[in-house]
Design goal:
The structure holds two protein chains of two kinds.
Chain A: E1 3-11, H1 16-26, E2 30-39, E3 42-50, H2 57-63, H3 65-70, E4 74-79, E5 85-87, E6 94-102, H4 107-117, E7 121-130, E8 137-145, H5 152-166, E9 168-174, E10 177-179
Antiparallel strand pairs in A: 1-3, 1-4, 2-3, 6-8, 6-9, 7-8
Helix pairs in contact in A: 4-5
Chain B: H1 26-40, E1 47-49, E2 59-62, E3 74-85, E4 88-94, E5 97-106, E6 109-115, E7 121-127, H2 128-141, H3 153-156, E8 157-159, E9 162-164
Antiparallel strand pairs in B: 1-2, 2-3, 3-6, 4-5, 5-8, 6-7
The chains are: A alpha+beta, B alpha+beta.
């Protein structure tokens, strides 16, 4: 079964989900997984879609043509990368990193760069600006899968140093999940 | 050494209440061995119930010794929790619900009664993750799943991340 990633972005209004999923339903495509969110009035959808036997990605693109023309939606279709998706059960090396401090440009970049240098994969990021005016506090919660060869105390001290430089508090702790 | 196949949700076996063991015979002894072998085939896994490997008997294994060195594996035949004390939130996962983990509210301590593999009545006051594991397994034996106990689907259920290798 062929699977694709469908992304949709557009100014939020009632009906976007119905319009997009209506095209999928009409052409017998199945939504296997989805994530949707809204940021400052822009609505974004990320869907994993499986196609029926007789359809390929360019066919699906065509099916969305009329919706793209008559709406203000940006719709993109992408194939999956080659490789095997593996679910790790349990997840001994998953960490949550939280960053809290005064907002300023570069916080996300510096944290992400440090993780990338350790070959740590970022799997989830949530950012929030809390407050107004000169009292804005920036909070970022990030999940990362950290390779086994990275020593956590070492990473902690690197984050502590970075936190000082950026004037933010950075904490890193394992995501403890128990499997029964 | 027999590692049995894990029954996954939504298989209805996970929703059936298991049947109390009347007599510990060779079939039950074999089932206990299979449960232990299967549990140990999954690193980091701390408990398993008989219906997770497709059996209807009220038996579960709880083994938190990897996390807490002073603890021994418990072979719980016909377990009943007789007392619940305190509260604890923990992120739980389950071999039978592979794609999700969830924050679940449990009791921090439980008193459990059961029969051991020699037929002797036992009682144990468990704390912390051992207590949570006992509650998770007794839920299984009653046809329950940890996702039934989630208070808020939006904030307390997490997809297990998949990685490109």
């Amino acid at each position: 079964m062929k699977k694709l990633i469908l992304t949709v972005l557009g100014q939020d209004r009632p009906g976007i989900v119905a319009e997009v999923t209506g095209v999928l339903f009409k052409h017998h495509c199945n939504i296997e997984d989805s994530s949707m969110t809204i940021l400052e009035g822009e609505f974004a959808m990320l869907l994993v879609v499986s196609l029926p036997e007789n359809m390929n990605s360019s066919d699906l693109k065509e099916k969305f043509d009329s919706l793209v023309k008559k709406s203000d939606l940006y719709i993109n279709i992408k194939s999956f990368a080659e490789g095997v998706l593996k679910s790790v059960v349990p997840e001994p090396r998953n960490y949550v990193i939280s960053v809290i401090g005064a907002d300023k440009p570069g916080i996300v970049y510096h944290i992400a760069k440090l993780l990338a240098e350790h070959d740590a994969n970022i799997t989830d990021v949530e950012t929030k600006r809390i407050g107004k005016g000169d009292r804005v506090v920036y909070a970022m919660i990030l999940e990362s899968n950290i390779p086994v060869n990275v020593k956590i105390p070492q990473l902690e001290s690197e984050f502590a140093e970075l936190g000082k430089k950026l004037s933010v508090e950075i904490t890193i702790k394992p995501i403890e999940s128990l499997t029964f | 050494m027999t590692v049995r196949r894990i029954v996954e949700y939504p298989n209805p076996l996970l929703r059936h209440e298991t049947i109390p063991v009347a007599k510990i015979d060779s079939r039950i002894r074999q089932l206990i061995t299979d449960l232990i072998d299967t549990l140990h085939a999954f690193p980091g896994c701390v408990g398993i119930a008989a219906n997770q490997i497709g059996e209807r008997d009220r038996i579960a294994i709880v083994d938190v010794s990897e996390k807490e060195k002073d603890k021994n594996a418990l072979i719980l035949i016909n377990p009943q929790i007789v007392s619940f004390i305190g509260e604890k939130f923990l992120r739980e996962g389950c071999l039978s619900v592979q794609n999700l983990t969830a924050n679940v509210k449990r009791s921090d301590e439980v008193v459990v009664e059961w029969m051991d593999e020699s037929g002797k009545e036992r009682v144990h006051h468990a704390h912390g993750i051992e207590a949570v594991c006992i509650q998770h397994e007794v839920d299984h034996l009653n046809g329950g799943l940890f996702i039934d106990r989630v208070l808020n689907a939006q904030t307390d259920i997490f997809r297990r991340k998949k990685y490109l290798h």
